[in-house]
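Suppose you are handed only these lines of text.
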Amino acid sequence: MPAPVLTIDGPSGSGKGTIARRVASALGWQLLDSGALYRLVAVAAGRRGVDLDEEDAVAKVAADLEVWFASAADGSERIELDGEDVTALVRSEECGAKASIVAALPAVREALLERQRAFRRPPGLVADGRDMGTRVFPDAGLKVFLTASAEERARRRHKQLKDKGIDVSLAALSRDIGDRDRRDSERSVAPLKPADDARVLDSSGLSIEAVTQIVLDWVRNTPQHG
Ligand code: DC
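From them, the structure of the protein bound to 2'-deoxycytidine-5'-monophosphate can be written out as follows.
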């Protein structure tokens, strides 16, 4: 029997990264942050002077990636590329924008497929990212699609930015999020949509603890996972 897998997907700002990390930590399972892999491909391509529109060359970068992840229950993390700490770089807005270009290249998605599957080890895996339940782990015992209203996601993002000393209008953020949702769900490569067998969880108005608890209860009630 392969190790159990829980996939968590959803739009940005739904809190899926935070929830995936908390749930993995509570269960003592491995964590796969697949978005970080796409971000790392963008960083590595930049360092090797590879243009993001050269699909085959970017896919080669993805296949050769030497990365190392560590994360703690308090949410802190460290990501290394070729032995160098690139955590802040990987989490920047600029890197997120480049990652979304890289993530639209089919050859890159293909190159990362086996690497992502290799994260599946006992006692189990929590896999965060949009095609986790549809393509990478279609046999996952539990698939969660975490969402929240566009207003709530804009409010969360606004608070995050404010905490970093960045002042942007809530209305503008709301608009951006709505636009991104439409782009993400309409694109042809790995569009953002729940797997047919996913359970949808709306986190609007719920605390991080409450959402974590709901997912943990679902895991305990999933026969392959109990
Ligand atoms: O979740 P994130 O912001 O770290 O993701 C970075 C980009 O990669 C974003 O454009 C979504 C995309 N992505 C993807 O296409 N497939 C995944 N499994 C994970 C992320």
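What can we learn from it? Residues 5-220 form a domain with the Rossmann fold fold (CATH 3.40.50.300). The chain is about 50% helix and 15% strand.
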